[in-house]
Write a structure and sequence with these properties.
Elements: E1 8-16, H1 44-52, E2 60-62, E3 65-70, H2 74-82, E4 89-94, H3 100-113, E5 119-124, E6 127-129, H4 132-146, E7 151-156, E8 167-171, E9 180-186, H5 191-200, E10 203-213, H6 214-224, H7 226-237, E11 240-242, E12 245-247, H8 250-254, H9 261-264, E13 276-281, E14 285-287, H10 291-297
Parallel strand pairs: 1-2, 1-3, 1-5, 3-4, 4-12, 7-13
Antiparallel strand pairs: 5-10, 6-14, 7-10, 8-9, 8-10, 9-13, 11-12
Helix pairs in contact: 3-6, 3-7, 6-7
């Protein structure tokens, strides 16, 4: 049994933005898809909260969850959070949508504000996982790799030449915790390219789930996008506390450049001192981006209809 002092501090981070317009009319700006029950008996947001708070290992210590969501969705998130009796969380409220890089930076700044440098377990709020045990195992292994200073991505093993996802290219031999070295993040391909990726065998889908120490993320952002770091830090330093809500300064936040985690940092890491690893994930993952995706995870009747 490991000594309690050797436990890895982990802060779950749920990125809960977006409007899910392709699931209209059920998903709409005032009630986006992450708050809908599209699979099972709880919303996608609640499922994400439960998954990332279910890490169960002797060497891992879970902190309070940080939820980054829009100001306009604060009560939706809070109401659904309160139904999760065993999950404690703080909600970081974005006054404007600035994509995922500023959102994660808010969470990282909040995490280190508490005097710790936890591993951030960063999860989107709009995905489904069929095999919870396999997901939990991959997540535990990713925590251990990230604790040593690497950025660790969970890459989904592709089963078809999908053109709607970005891809992660890996190389080399598997390491101690089942991780491989990432050498490239590839954009969404055309069909011919996707078929080549699938045949190659060294490409995984980029599901937007990754683990990184707060200090490592902030270091990488300072290197590759110092403008985003400085602008987000200014807005965060002028935060207003109304617990469980935290509000960065509205005017300063609106001045932050908008960019995604992948564009701002991840794609820049190849060849740099920021090492990126990937752990293949085979857990029945689905990114709920369309009605076809909802159909795929549902239970169909004898003629193929899925009805709730």
């Amino acid at each position: 049994m490991p000594d309690i002092n050797s436990k890895i501090s982990v802060t779950p981070v749920i990125l809960c933005g977006g409007s899910g317009t392709r699931l209209w009319p059920l998903s709409r700006s005032g009630f986006p898809k992450q708050f809908l029950i599209l699979s099972g008996t709880t919303s996608l947001f609640q499922q994400s909260l439960e998954r990332v708070n279910s890490i169960d290992a002797d060497d891992i210590e879970l902190n309070e969850t940080l939820i980054v969501t829009g100001e306009e969705h604060r009560f939706l998130a809070l109401d659904q959070l309160r139904e999760m009796k065993k999950v404690d969380a703080t909600l970081l409220l974005e006054p404007a949508a600035k994509n995922t890089a500023p959102a994660l930076t808010l969470a990282a700044l909040k995490a280190i504000q508490r005097g710790d440098d936890p591993v951030l377990a960063v999860m989107p709020a709009d995905q489904t996982i069929q095999n919870a045990a396999a997901f939990n195992d991959a997540l535990q292994r990713a925590v251990r790799v990230a604790s040593n200073g690497s950025v660790v991505v969970l890459g989904v093993s592709p089963d078809k030449p999908e053109t709607g996802y970005g891809y992660i290219r890996w190389q080399g031999e598997v390491s101690d915790h089942g991780e491989y070295e990432v050498i490239e993040f590839a954009e969404k391909p055309d069909t011919k390219t996707a078929e080549a990726y699938l045949e190659n065998g060294h490409y995984l889908w980029n599901a937007g789930m990754f683990l990184v120490r707060a200090s490592v993320w902030l270091k990488a952002l300072r290197i590759f996008r110092p403008d985003i770091f400085e602008a987000t830090n200014r807005a965060f330093l002028s935060e207003v506390l109304d617990l469980p809500f935290v509000r960065p300064d509205k005017a300063l936040y609106q001045a932050i450049p908008s960019d995604s985690i992948d564009y701002a940092v991840m794609e820049q890491c190849a060849g740099s001192n920021i090492k990126v690893k990937v752990i293949p994930l085979e857990s029945g993952w689905n990114d709920m981006v369309s009605w076809d995706a909802v159909w795929q995870v549902g239970h169909s009747d004898k003629i193929g209809n899925v009805v709730t």
